[in-house]
Write a structure and sequence with these properties.
heterodimer; A: 113 residues; mainly beta; 0% helix; globular; B: 114 residues; 11 strands
């Protein structure tokens, strides 16, 4: 059972475009929703995270939008750059418990110059 | 300087062999994890230790045995390696119960079973 569904699987945009990656979750106990960025040959690194008490969080060019009632959240990358080309993973976890992260299947983003 | 380190970076071995992967973190975290990333890039947790105690043990074959000698180290031993064990294995660490659950990942160990 996949608890976090992520789409699309891959995404190609031109430099300056705004790629959007979507995730949906099933477990209403989840209360922490991070996005991780992974470059080829490297480990994932935290990009930005949100808790369900806010509907949006922005850090630089990266924004998470969160819809608690729909159990969905998305990552927007403003003014995308070729250096943003990477695989992006959404995830979810429950604080206070095991805190294990359940990852989506990842989105490979390519930003063309 | 390295926050989470893993050795070796690459591991090529024959089916049936036993191998170990080592992980060390210098972040002062109390919780460490092992993840498996398959050929389709899917990341799945395998184990987690908090203060040397096993707290997460997903459905993993018992050929996989984690060992945490102290809070800063979490090793993974794999017996009787199979072709399907080929993957990238990531170690991660975090401070449990902190303001967030940011997990810091190591660079990964690419295991190839021939």
């Amino acid at each position: 059972q996949q608890q976090v569904k992520q789409s699309p699987q891959s995404l190609i945009v031109q430099k300056g475009g705004i790629p959007i990656i979507n995730c949906a979750y099933e477990n209403t106990a989840f209360d922490y929703f991070p996005w991780y960025q992974q470059f080829p040959g490297k480990g994932p690194a935290l990009l930005i995270a949100i808790r369900p008490d806010v509907s949006e969080k922005k850090e630089g060019r990266f924004t998470i939008s969160f819809n608690k009632s729909a159990k969905q959240f998305s990552l927007h990358i403003m003014d995308s750059q070729p250096g943003d080309s990477a695989t992006y993973f959404c995830a979810a976890s429950t604080q206070g418990g095991s805190e294990k992260l359940v990852f989506g299947k990842g989105t490979k983003l390519t930003v063309n110059p | 300087d390295t926050a989470v380190s893993q050795t070796p970076k690459y591991l090529v071995t024959q089916m049936g062999n036993d191998k170990s992967i080592k992980c060390e973190q210098n972040l002062g975290h109390d919780t460490m994890y092992w993840y498996k990333q398959d050929s389709k890039k899917f990341l799945k947790i395998m184990f987690s230790y908090n203060n040397k105690e096993l707290i997460i043990n997903e459905t993993v074959p018992n050929r996989f045995s984690p060992k945490s000698p102290d809070k800063a180290h979490l090793n993974l031993h794999i017996n009787s390696l199979e072709l399907g064990d080929s993957a990238v294995y990531f170690c991660a660490s975090s401070h449990r119960g902190g303001a967030n659950n940011e997990q810091f990942f190591g660079p990964g160990t690419r295991l190839t079973v021939l």
